[in-house]
Amino acid sequence: MAITYRNAKVISNEEISKDIYKLVVEDDSEIKAGQFYMLKINGVTFLPRPISICEKTENRLTFLYAVVGEGTKEYKMLKKDDFINITGPLGNGFDIEKNYNRVALVAGGIGTAPMLELAKKLRKKDKNQKIDLYAGFRDEIYLIDELKEYVDEISISTNTGKHGHKGFITELLKPENYDTVLCCGPEIMMKKVVDMCKEKNVSVYVSMEKHMACGVGACLVCTCKTKDGHKRTCKDGPVFDGYYVEL
């Protein structure tokens, strides 16, 4: 399967927290909250990386990424007017047309990134909808100021206790107060959230994060286990019903 990449001009690339960068590029594609792009740099041998869409405004596309390996170390060297190769949007995002009623957005670390566009889309659909954010971090927090405009209440936890509750964000979440929980973050956190929602019979949707080589379902690197066997996170997801996927 041929995968076509296009050059996107870098508008900005800045560190917003320790080893967390915000990359803004030019792109006028129509996107859905929860979708992702594959990114790679010309002349670099590292495999492309799947990066969730953080925000889309007019012809600007924002990504957040964590510098965790040699590949993402190359990204942080990008500067204004450089170019990066992108393909997307890819995958199935959150279904904004669903009636989620009272909704909790639950995020862990870099999983907070797609919550911005999701919160914007939900608020645009219904300005009176109950939308609360639960965000957990290791130490430093980020993106919270941007999210404040679109959610009603924000609960924060950090492993170190530097901000908010000291501990895990799942210790603050009470699923029974909501009709739907939308979640993105480390798999161990999402499993806990799904189990909590099942116990209270609350709908839950999770955005899976897996290593990918192609992003279009050809390489089968990113499969995840579901009630119907293994599914491709990139093509069949990354958003799945929490009752369907097996974490």
Describe what you observe in this structure.
It is a single chain. 16% of the residues lie in helices and 36% in strands. It is of the alpha/beta class. The protein has 2 domains: 6-90, Elongation Factor Tu (Ef-tu), domain 3 (Beta Barrel); 103-241, Nucleotide-binding domain of ferredoxin-NADP reductase (FNR) module (Rossmann fold), CATH 3.40.50.80. The strands form 3 sheets. It has a 7-stranded mixed β-sheet, sandwiched between helices. It has a 6-stranded antiparallel beta barrel with strand order 1-2-5-4-3-6. A two-stranded antiparallel sheet has the order 13-14. Helix 2 (113-125) links the parallel strand 7 and strand 8. The model has no long low-confidence stretch (mean pLDDT 90). FAD binds at residues 49-52, 71-72. Belongs to the PyrK family. One of its GO terms (molecular function) is electron transfer activity.
Structural class: alpha/beta
Strand order of the largest sheet: 10-9-8-7-11-12-15
Low confidence ranges:
none
Mean pLDDT: 90
How large a portion of the residues is in β-strands, by DSSP E? 35-45%
CATH topology of the largest domain: Rossmann fold
| H-E order | EEEEEHEEHEHEEEHEEEHE
Cofactor: [2Fe-2S] cluster; FAD
Protein name: Dihydroorotate dehydrogenase B (NAD(+)), electron transfer subunit
Pathway: Pyrimidine metabolism; UMP biosynthesis via de novo pathway; orotate from (S)-dihydroorotate (NAD(+) route): step 1/1
Function: Responsible for channeling the electrons from the oxidation of dihydroorotate from the FMN redox center in the PyrD type B subunit to the ultimate electron acceptor NAD(+).
